[in-house]
Amino acid sequence: MAALSLTTAKARWLRIESIVMLLFFVGAGFGIIGSLEFLLSEMVRPSAAGAATGLQLLTSSIAVWAQNVLAFSLAYWRVDRGGPEARANHTSTKHDWLFPQEGATENAPDWRPTFVDYLFLAFCTATAFSPTDALPLTSRAKLLMMLESIISLVTIIAVAARAINILGS
Question: How many structural domains is the chain composed of?
Answer without folding.
Answer: 1
